[in-house]
Amino acid sequence: MDNPAGRRFRSRDWFADPQRSDMTALYLERFMNYGLTPEELRSGRPIIGIAQTGSDLSPCNRIHLDLARRVRDGIRDAGGIPMEFPVHPIFENCRRPTAALDRNLAYMGLVEILYGYPIDAVVLTTGCDKTTPAGIMAASTVDIPAIVLSGGPMLDGWHGGELVGSGTVIWRSRRQLAAGEIDEDEFLQRACSSAPSAGHCNTMGTASTMNAVAEALGLSLPGCAAIPAPYRERGQMAYETGRRIVGMAFEDLRPSRILSRESFLNALSVVSCAGGSSNAQVHIMAMARHAGVDLRPQDWTDEAYDLPLLLNMQPAGKFLGERFFRAGGVPALMWELQQAGRLHGDCASVTGRTVAQNIEGRETSDREVIRPFDAPLMEKAGFLVLSGNLFDFGILKTSVISQRFRERYLNRPGHEGVFEARAVVFDGADDYHARINDPALDIDEGCILVMRGAGPIGWPGSAEVVNMQPPDALIQRGIQTLPTLGDGRQSGTADSPSILNVSPESAVGGGLCWLRNGDLIRIDLNAGRCDALVSADEIARRQRELPAPPVPASQSPWEEMYRNHTGQLVDGATLDMALKYRRIAEKTPRHNH
């Protein structure tokens, strides 16, 4: 690609500094040992980083080890020079005590690479839940041209002639195991059947949600998020992404020129009408804060709660990723929103065109999967923000509230949307697993299960443990779900009706720390309230008499650093000292010798 504007890329400060020829030689020489030439690196062509998130420790993203070849081809063909580098691994299913610790760690590492090395633009490879926000957060901090390439979901899972969605089948099979309907071998077979190929979760869990968010924000090429990992279109998308990032480098099309309040509101709308993950609240807030965009927690309710559920995809619906792709993917969802006047179509994107231009003519061909705006799967299926005397912020994903749950709790004549339940409180997941089947707790369908000690400081990192299932005895009686509440998170693939991400958490003195077994909790979805029916005087007395909240000792240096610098889930659990750093690539680092 020509450089008509004669743009000088930041990598020239490494490889063509007329004031320090000695340093230029030092920077150049070691790149020669794998075949690059001085002429390439001093040519004025942009050096394009490929942030490689795939590895054996990141199975959901491992497809990128192959896709990177096509990204390189696209970069070279468009006139750029590719340089691939590793990103700290993030694997939701395997990382203990939680992969939430890794998002901020990967963010910091990526910031240092993008800032401290001769990289002019970057392809962010994504897939598993937190790889997407980590990359976007870092690109926003550094502010060099960046484009997101998802690795794509796995192929649809099948078992016994039925669709089995990754993650979602785990939670449903757990209940069937507790009810005695299946044995452990059947459980394992179902789990394995749900993961039939390379790729991330094939449900609309956090991985699919966050890659859809990247596309809704305008940071991916149209259609990128939904292409299944093994499909030929995925390799073609990798090639086109490589080509496009070179164009973005010449155009100086940086995140700060794409991301806006309106683009983030588009993302909230897509998550809501897709039945997306409640974890999106945490990650979208973190990305907005690092981008310097004014996004407020209440926006989830004020801007997107009244949106209908349009996507018929597990866990809120029936189908899986392949069918979503064939139905048109994210552009088809955004087209529905635009037709209804619920999309900011003038937002910028990595294509250099507006969002409206990107989705022109992208109406779905499969109305069983993507429903019309005026004939949805569910009305008002967005996220409700709640507050009360127990917390300042909590969020409820309404699209997974089953009809049976609504009839039991939310449809009392004269009290629609309001119910009261007796609290059964657990101090962390270990306490829950040890005591959930204890008959002395006397858990019945009039109870709400409460998890505390699961937030960013208490866990640490905030764990996906709030989607607690009822005692085995209740499940055997046909009661599959109870309301749950906690200061942690839950898997985006779960179908539990939970009040999540409660802030402030109990470990920092939030209201859950004084809650006791047997307290009545009143939940009013109409007013957005969640309150313990405990007098103000009694609350004050409990607070005075409470010991310091129990917080397990940190087990690693990073856990201690994380606890000392990370905020609450309501604000995205970001690192406090990191938010002041924006557009740092505008200043080149000093020489190293």
From TrEMBL:
The record's InterPro entries line, in alphabetical order, gives: Dihydro-acid_dehy_C, DiOHA_6PGluconate_deHydtase_CS, ILV_EDD_C, ILV_EDD_N, IlvD/EDD_N, Sugar_Degrad_Dehydratases
Q: Which UniProt keywords apply?
A: Iron, Iron-sulfur, Lyase, Metal-binding
From the Swiss-Prot or TrEMBL record, give the protein name.
IlvD/Edd family dehydratase
NCBIfam families associated with the record: PRK06131.1 (NF004784), PRK13017.1 (NF009560)
Gene3D superfamilies registered for this protein in UniProt: IlvD/EDD C-terminal domain-like
Pfam families tied to this protein: ILV_EDD_C, ILVD_EDD_N
The record's similarity note reads:
Belongs to the IlvD/Edd family.
Q: Which GO terms describe its molecular function?
A: hydro-lyase activity; iron-sulfur cluster binding; metal ion binding
- Ranges for domain Dihydroxy-acid/6-phosphogluconate dehydratase N-terminal: 45-358
The EC code for this enzyme is 4.2.1.-
Specify the domain of life of the species encoding this protein: Bacteria
Top-level EC class as recorded in UniProt: lyase
Report the source organism: Aquincola agrisoli
Record-linked PROSITE patterns: ILVD_EDD_1
Domain Dihydroxy-acid/6-phosphogluconate dehydratase C-terminal residues, every copy: 368-573
